[in-house]
Design goal:
- The chain is mostly beta strands.
- The protein folds into 3 domains: 97 residues, Immunoglobulin-like (Sandwich), CATH 2.60.40; 98 residues, Sandwich (Immunoglobulin-like); 346 residues, TolB, C-terminal domain (Neuraminidase), CATH 2.120.10.
- It contains 2 helices and 44 strands.
- The strands form 12 sheets. Strands 2-10-9-4-6 form a 5-stranded mixed β-sheet, with no helix packed on it.
């Protein structure tokens, strides 16, 4: 019988290796150290300037319990005071456990600002910067607090306020501004203010002085040019008023017309017609293809039909190149039901004088209490035009809504005349207003470097302007000191109620109407261009004379016109051009 053979089993290399790894004396790989805290290592305290990056970008380090650096930890940098901002806010620590923010731009607040470096579950590191306003800064007057009107010895409704800005125009917060009375003898209940997050600093209540006239407060801050806030004190009985900006960014707005429901149509001399709806939206209507702006002409006067609710008619005085010859005309459109378009154009008055590059075009249009459309025109700097009764220049015209002569126009003239002429002999009428009660029409007229005039218009009257040179051809004005109304040549000429010694470019005008105007109820407000102010005139009942009772907004802007809205407030529009113009609302 064969002898049995035994088998021996040898372990595999894998098994040997496994046994070796499981032996108690095998080497071990140390676990990563656990992060314990975040500490600041660079830029922890430093000076800075508001709205600018600090010089040293803050850096933090993540450490373990033994104080060793920990790599690969996410650190987030967060602004906790001052309103600044950071770039590169989320950073992973490097081999030294270090994380550096991209940049820290300080906020607008002067004083202490703080930044935190954070990692979940760890105590944070905090960096501090002390922000200063910097050397280059400016003070800007808050519009709503400037040019207020109030009673003598009485406080204004809004306290003086300015905005402090840095050289880049950004607001500076937390800075002290000092206010002081500079004119008028009034007083401030507090003379210092600290700028808020918008950079605005406010003084205490301003009580005006004891005499009517100009009052002023100055605001100062080290390193800036002082700012001046102006107010006008008026005698008892006059209303306190303030102004608000309704529209801005305009270029040479020329006229404004309101619907009773509040929609506001307006023109820009070189642009066209727009409407501001009650919700604040503004619609720009395309300019007509024949629109020909130039010089003092363009899209000028504006009027809404008294029967707008049924016919939706809008009228404008504009320069047109139709027929290859530039002339002024009055155009009528229908406003679409949704206010989106102007439709059905009809040119109701054409051939209104235009000349010398658009000079002296006049251009104010208004429906009078008599139901007629009144139109003012200029002499175009052409000597024969004002007294030529076959020319429509230098005139006051009265027409129906279709452009035909209005009933009541003169039935006879000194010589053959256009039947649409109601009065003649004017230089450049820019203002036209009707007095409540009497319905009398008053015009404001530009003088030849002197003698601007406000005149009550009598149908069939002669304004007395006749600038024909001795040669009978050229254009000659009168010498300084002589009235624009020549009563020697025209003894029955219309006498002005008010005359300025210098020409200020009297523009659009409006009678203030309503008890909200107190003692100014019935006063004529006249805007001036070169004069840069709003003159308020008390006109005698018979229109023979007028006395100035106040002037507002002196040297603020060129003022093109004034219109009282259906809300009872006065709307004034500026004329400085270049997209800088505004429409103001004057609230009593």
């Amino acid at each position: 019988m064969a002898q049995a053979t035994s088998l021996r089993v040898f372990p595999t290399l894998a098994a040997v290796a496994l046994a070796a790894c499981s032996s108690s004396d095998a080497p071990t790989v140390p676990a990563p150290a656990a992060p314990s805290r975040v500490v600041a290592v660079a830029g922890e305290t430093q000076p800075g300037t508001v709205n600018a990056a600090v010089a040293v970008a803050p850096a933090a380090q993540v450490l373990d319990g033994a104080g060793g650096p920990v790599r690969g930890v996410v650190v987030r940098f967060v602004v906790i005071d001052g309103g600044g901002r950071v770039t590169g806010d989320s950073v992973v620590t490097d081999s030294a456990g270090r994380a550096t923010v991209g940049s820290w731009v300080l906020g607008p607040s002067v004083g202490t600002q703080r930044l935190a470096a954070r990692s979940p579950g760890l105590p944070e590191a905090v960096f501090t910067a002390t922000a200063s306003a910097g050397q280059a800064a400016s003070l800007v007057v808050v519009t709503e607090t400037d040019q207020q009107v109030g009673g003598v010895n009485a406080p204004l409704s809004r306290v003086p306020a300015v905005v402090l800005r840095d050289a880049s125009g950004r607001a500076i917060a937390g800075a002290t501004v000092t206010f002081a009375v500079a004119e008028g003898g009034g007083r401030l209940e507090s003379t210092t203010g600290t700028t808020d997050s918008t950079g605005t600093a406010r003084a205490g209540r301003w009580i005006l002085g004891s005499a009517p006239g100009r009052n002023a407060v100055t605001a100062t801050r080290s390193g800036t040019t002082p700012a001046t806030i102006v107010a006008t004190a008026v005698a008892g009985g006059a209303p306190a008023v303030r102004r608000e900006v309704v529209l801005e960014g305009l270029s040479n707005p020329w006229d404004v017309a309101f619907l009773p429901s509040g929609e506001m149509f307006f023109t820009e001399r070189g642009g066209g017609v727009r409407v501001r709806l009650r919700d604040g939206r503004v619609i720009r209507y395309p300019a007509p293809s024949d629109f020909a702006p130039g010089g003092q002409s363009g899209m000028l006067g504006l009027a809404l039909d008294p029967q707008f609710a049924s016919n939706r008619f809008l009228y404008a005085f504009m320069a047109s190149s139709l027929g290859g010859t530039t002339a002024n005309r009055v155009v009528r459109w229908r406003v679409s039901d949704d206010f989106g378009t102007l439709e059905a154009r009809t040119d109701i008055v054409t051939g209104i004088a235009w000349g010398n590059g658009g000079a002296h075009s006049g251009g104010r249009i208004r429906f009078g209490p008599d139901g007629a459309l009144w139109i003012t025109s200029g002499d175009t700097r052409t000597g024969r035009v004002p007294q030529d009764l076959q020319s429509l220049g230098g005139k006051v015209l009265r027409v129906t809504r279709d452009g035909t002569p209005a009933p009541g126009n003169p039935s006879s003239y000194p010589r053959p005349a256009d039947a649409r002429i109601a009065a003649w002999g004017f230089r450049n009428i820019n203002g036209l207003a009707f007095r409540a009660g009497s319905g009398d029409a008053y015009v404001a007229e530009h003088g030849p470097d002197h003698s601007d005039e406000v005149t009550r218009v009598r149908i069939g009257g002669n304004g007395g302007w006749d600038p024909v040179c001795p040669d009978g051809i050229g254009y000659c004005g009168y010498s300084a000191g002589m009235s624009m109304t020549d009563t020697v040549k025209f003894p029955t000429a219309l006498r002005p109620a008010f005359r300025l010694a210098d020409s200020e470019g009297m523009g659009g005008s409006a009678f203030l109407d309503g008890p909200q105007w107190r003692d100014w109820n019935g006063v004529l407000a006249v805007a001036t261009l070169a004069g840069r102010r709003l003159r308020l005139l008390q006109v005698a009942a018979d229109g023979s004379s007028a006395t100035q009772v106040a002037e507002l907004y002196a040297n603020v802007a060129r003022l093109r016109g004034a219109v009282q809205g259906p809300d009872g407030f006065l709307y004034v529009f500026t004329d400085d051009g270049g997209g800088r113009d505004q429409v103001w609302r004057i609230l009593p």
